[in-house]
Sequence to fold (262 residues):
Amino acid sequence: MASQALPARGARLGRQVAPGLVPAPRSREQPDDGATVRAVVLALPGGDALSTRRRSPMAAAVMWPLARHLVRHGMADGVAAHVVHYRFRGWNGGHAHPAEDAEWAVGEAVRRYGDVPVCLVGLDMGARAALHAAGHPAVSSVVALSPWLPGGPEPEPVKQLIGRRVMLVHGTQDDSTDPDLSYRFAERAKKVNREVCRFEVHSDGHGLHQHRAEVFALTTDFVLGSLLDRPYARPVADALAAPPPLGLRMPLATGFGRALRA
Fold:
């Protein structure tokens, strides 16, 4: 493990997520029980297209239930999680501040815990940040929920995803971020990396609230399968193996993952 802290930044890793409502211990390295951290999940909140205001506590709070769920199911195997605090709440054009902060957070996680695999789980703008920051050598996998992938003259990069396992999840009734744009992105990513899949949550919107239990179970299956080399549930394995468009328009079945729910 590196002994020197990274240069001070405005971004913060945030305290370690506990499986319940009680905050985790304040230890910077390990939980109180001395368990070794073997893998890390970094949850990346949503935000705005343009804003230099401080991070939004409400956006960060949206990520806590999913982060707790992941820790609850992975803690026994040494999985730790943090909700990343950005410097600013906006993407801010070419500055791509949240992507820079996500990459910094991966480096900070490695500094704290050693040479461990990291999964980036992002929502909305945080999903775009996760996809951009996937090129960090410690990142093994990415989950992009309702990703904000605005169309523009320059296509979103995909080469940084080579060698990573990537899952996108999008509600078909999302009126905030375009599901078609995430499909087209996944299609481009699949051409350079076979380990890409995408699930469609039919009749659900941007927040994926209507099928929250299924989305949590799907994310848990993919994250822990990727970090801990566990077998994926059959729908995830099938989506990863299937060629486009099947593996990129995989419907998320109602009741998925009932055995994973707490």
